[in-house]
Amino acid sequence: MSILENEDRERIRDANPIEQVVGKYVDLVQKGRVFKGLCPFHDDSNPSMDVDPDRGTFKCWACNEGGDVFAFIQKRYNLDFLEAMEHLAQEAGIEFRRRPVDPEVTAQRDKDLEMLEWVTEWFIRQLESRSGKAARENLKKRGFRPDMIRKFRIGFAPPGFDSLTNTLKKAGDPEAAMKRACELGLLKAGREGTYYDAFRDRIIFPIIRPAKGQARETGEVIAFGGRHLGSGVEKPGLTPAKYINSPETRVYSKGKVLYGYHQGLDQIRRGRSLVLSEGYTDVIMAHQYGFGNTVAVLGTALTEEGVQLISRKVDRVDLLFDGDAAGKKAASKCCELFLGTEVEVRVVILESGVDPCDLLSSEGGKEAYESFLAAGISSLEFLIRDILEQHEFEPGVSSMRTVSRVRKELSRRVLEPLSDMGQIPLEEAVRRISVETRWSEASIHQDFLADRDQRTARRRPEGRGSAGRVGPGNFDRGPVPIVEDETEVILGDYGPGSPHVVEPGVEKPADASPGSPEAAHVPEDEHIMIKMVLRDESYYRPLFRIHPPERWRAPLHRELALLVLSERGVPDPEEVSSSGLKSLILDILSFISVEDEMIPDPDERNLLVPQYMAEILVSELERKRHQLVRKKEAREQIQSINDQIQTLTSSKFLFDNPSQVDEIINRFELESLGSTSTQKSEEQESTFHE
Length: 690
What we know:
DNA Primase, Chain A, 29 helices, Dna Topoisomerase Vi A Subunit, Chain: A, domain 2, alpha+beta, DNA primase DNAg catalytic core, N-terminal domain
């Protein structure tokens, strides 16, 4: 199902005031403009949850749960977004519309899940049978308790090529059953229309994702992994792979699920953290010893898509890898992928040859495991050291050629991703590199800026300079494209941030026609600018002087920016007549509330807009300088620009008020520069489409 249109969603939201909805489950007491009560999502003895009727949000200051009225119902009943919408619509007596998906596609997926569940039970029965004795002894020898075997639904595939095949031949429609099993990777096609078992003589680890409805407790089995047992010989001289896994299917995409996430969902949600390990048995043993937030990547390595999914669910990740070369390489790649996200990442490299599963099951293993986790180092520190080790860098000894390579790699792999996070993370990285290399911080920063400008010049058309960096600021990675595909599951979870929930700012504008560019995409810079204006409306005038709303490309965002200009400030959502504008304002305010939860320091939150404004000015000044250099104009002007950029990028710099921004715009004539650039960009885009 696709999400509802804005108008329907707002009708449901308006009909369900958050204080009334939460008040059905929690005794609320009004304290000023907010209500306070015991949080229902953890064992709360002192009222730690605030409900804000004005913003339509709730927030627990103890367990960090929060969101709008839909998020509360999702968390309360473990529903997906559409189910929460339906629940609230029914409560308010509102009839709401869903756009149906292809019923044939839904039917096929349901049949796939039905077969996977049936085969899971069949594998479990084989483990419990006489033929599963060797597998049971193997699991017992490795220290797995019976309750863990049941929790993870471990099974066994007997030796031979026809155990499952012969069972499926007894189905009501054997040919259809075997064909479906082949599509799911359970069987393989042989000669002349025959089939044979894909999993043979293997301990079976079902891959389970959180589910809805009756399957909420057990989850849904969507694939399998199999570890070869070696109890039988298929062919002389043949050495089967140690592990084999299901292929991707209609219901399984390995980049969108983590092994053990369903089983550890409660602990992961409570702590908003997880331990990323490498294998099935490592995860199961970690859960057995109380580390229920341990999960494993499915596939050869963590992907950028996987990092995006993890980043939406947790605040901290501990990477647990082997100490061999492959383990260090994998850890380095993971660190690089997480740079630029808000997730705190720690790296734990085990001693070479140490297996987490065997370590935990040994005497004193739990304490040793905890010691390893406590000794983890930051991803930044690990990545810098790894790059230096790869190039065999030694301070004061390495050749200039090695130094040059190391500098460029550190700029590209470390500093550039962090530069999107703001000045503080960038300065911390520069400081850490300085400690490890003994280079001065000033030289490291200058080299990074030079490398970045070179890469930017290669990527962007001449004349645009670094303007492309203005939009994101350093506070938001921007909207992530969302594919409305029913098979997509964020870490197998159904909740806020699921593919059914469009992030504020990237949803289809109410007045955009289907298929139009405006309906498909909101420019990132326009989304961020509106969000910053809603954060601090006092900066709207200088911001819009540089980026006039009349030239914005997203109709709904343009309309809101023009309304801010005409009203000389952000209007009250309740007084906005357009349902689309009202929805956009409320969504962005809700998103800002979620962002604020991640930044508990109010002083840090107050700096977001001034710092963003400073970055826009720096970008425009760099563009101005580029034009002056090309025209070979006065050195004094260029030096003045350099001095202003240095001031704006100084860690000690702060705006006292927006008038200072106006002074800089006037002094360097940035207003006309921004307008001309925007116009030129639009003309180029128009020519391209023609």
